[in-house]
Design brief:
The structure is a single chain. By secondary structure, this protein is an alpha+beta fold. It has a single domain, classed as Yope Regulator, Chain: A, CATH 3.30.1460. About 35% of the residues lie in helices and about 35% in strands. It has 3 helices and 6 strands. The protein has a 6-stranded antiparallel β-sheet.
Length: about 130
């Protein structure tokens, strides 16, 4: 059963999380810089996803160029992507459940942690300012 493997890895990594249902875990682990990261088991895949920001109305070409550059040089596991349905920039990774082991899972989450910590200052300049 999927939740046993995924949940066991989360426990082994000592991460703070909430199991929302049989196939969804939400991480809220400030210590490991993994707040707002969702892990979804959608057979045969495990999808790790974090919403980074709303898609801004300005500087899109510059932002997308920057994201592609980060994908090429800094994001080891996963990639930045656009979720047009929800108008969000996301960080996403997929793992094959059957072949996923602890090391694959840990490496994917460490890559997310690194990206979320190191790229925040880079991407924050593209966030739209609310209120004036």
């Amino acid at each position: 059963m999927a939740d046993n493997k995924i949940e066991q890895y989360l426990i082994d990594l000592m991460l703070t999380y909430q199991q929302v249902d049989d196939s969804l875990w939400l991480l809220d682990d400030e210590e490991h810089v993994l707040q707002g990261v969702a892990i979804v088991y959608a057979e045969p895949l495990v999808v790790i996803r974090a919403e980074i920001m709303d898609i801004p109305k300005e500087n899109l070409l510059e932002l997308y160029t920057r994201l592609l550059g980060l994908n090429a040089t800094d994001v080891v596991h996963g990639a930045y992507a656009v979720d047009n349905d929800n108008k969000k920039i996301i960080l996403i990774n997929t793992l094959q459940y059957d072949s996923m082991d602890y090391e694959n899972f840990r490496a994917a989450l460490e890559s997310f942690s690194l990206a979320l910590a190191e790229h925040y200052p880079i991407l924050s300049k593209y966030r739209e300012k609310s209120g004036a």
